[in-house]
Design a protein that fits this description.
Layout (H helix, E strand, L loop, with lengths): L37 E6 L3 H13 L2 E7 L3 H14 L6 E3 L2 H5 L6 E4 L7 H9 L3 E4 L7 H14 L3 E3 L7 H11 L8 E5 L20 H5 L25 H5 L1 H11 L7 E7 L11 E8 L4 E5 L27 E5 L2
Parallel strand pairs: 1-2, 1-4, 2-3, 4-5, 5-6, 7-10
Antiparallel strand pairs: 8-9, 8-11, 9-10
Helix pairs in contact: 4-5, 6-9
Length: 335
């Protein structure tokens, strides 16, 4: 496999929608020999990774044979819980994702790491012939996503992205209502994010003894550890996540787009600013995101939705241009 890092992800063009069901009914992975147990692994065994695994067990037809995490406490807890869920069979545990992907007999993986750790293991997994259930967002940025799409197409593997809100009965009912014409002609849709971020302590400190912080940061910039950029809270740190817009907002973007039968937007315009720099956190704000399709637009409004730079952190090595942290700004994209 060609060695790659964040700065070299410039291959591939276009975008793709991954629609194949990875962990649905028994035998749903497209094997010719009918229903059987599929041997899966989980990379990223924290809160959401284990929720994905439990959903796979509920769907049925799977055995968890391997788990991987850079936090030994998470890993041990997940291994014990997994063994209890599958009749006492304990999965093999790994701290290195490369060794994990080489686990003998593994056929598919759940990739539930923070997004800065999506691209490298995803590309390696499909190149090894593994099918992938990939948590959203697909990638940390567009360049990585393009490289991942290209790799998946070359490998011909089954990939599903974790847009779980598509399966919500409430959203299905709303989509049916709209598609049935009861609401009339839709000319604008507003989406709201109704909760505050409430980030944890931003004071730099030693990471938990169980956490390999160097490995956790991986291909992203290595920032001093603080609870507000570690487990769970990474969503609001620019180096590792993309804020509420991509954490929660992406669900609304996807669900509205699918419900209205739309493809990719024709234009995106964003306005906002960095409104709380004195708090010492990586939180900031989008005022609104106006997104246009063929004849109509919808707007997403949020409080703290976009990541910004923490006051004491080094400059990001991200390949995309970002505004100065002390300015309000507007960005327009026309594909």
């Amino acid at each position: 496999m060609e060695k790659m890092d964040r700065r070299s992800f410039t291959r591939g063009v276009g975008a793709a929608a991954f629609g194949a069901a990875l962990l649905g009914a028994r035998g749903g992975l497209g094997y010719a020999d009918g229903p059987r147990v599929v041997r899966i692994g989980v990379l990223g065994t924290g809160w959401w990774g284990m929720l994905d695994l439990k959903a796979a067990f509920k769907a049925g037809g799977v055995e968890a044979v391997a788990l991987c995490d850079v936090d030994s406490e998470h890993l041990e807890k997940a291994a014990a819980e997994t063994a209890a869920l599958q009749g006492g069979t304990r999965p093999r545990t790994y701290s290195d994702w490369r060794a994990f992907l080489a686990h003998p007999g593994m056929e598919a993986v759940i990739l539930a790491t923070p997004p800065h750790w999506h691209a490298l293991p995803f590309i390696a997994a499909v190149e090894r012939g593994l099918d992938v259930y990939l948590e959203k967002p697909v990638a940390y940025d567009i360049r990585e996503a393009q490289a991942m799409v290209a790799a998946a197409k070359r490998a011909g593997r089954i990939v599903q992205v974790g847009f779980q809100r598509r399966q919500s009965q409430a959203f299905k009912d709303a989509a049916a209502y709209l598609q049935g014409g009861a609401a009339g002609r839709i000319v604008q849709v507003d989406a709201q994010i109704h909760y505050a971020a409430n980030p944890p302590d931003a004071t730099p400190q030693a990471p938990p003894a169980s956490l390999d912080w160097e490995a956790w940061c991986g291909p992203a910039p290595k920032l001093p550890y603080a609870p507000n950029i570690g487990h769970f809270a990474w969503r609001l740190e620019e180096a590792y996540g993309n804020g509420h817009l991509v954490d929660w907002g992406i669900h609304w973007i996807d669900r509205v787009r699918v419900a209205l039968g739309e493809g990719m937007p024709k234009a995106v315009q964003a306005t906002g600013g960095h409104w709380a720099p004195a708090r010492g956190t990586s939180s900031s704000a989008w005022r609104s995101i106006a997104t246009g399709w063929r004849r109509w637009c919808w707007t997403q409004r949020a409080g703290r939705a976009c990541p910004s730079r923490s006051p004491s952190r080094p400059a990001s090595r991200r390949p995309l241009a970002w505004p100065r942290p002390d300015t309000s700004w507007r960005s327009t994209w026309i594909p």
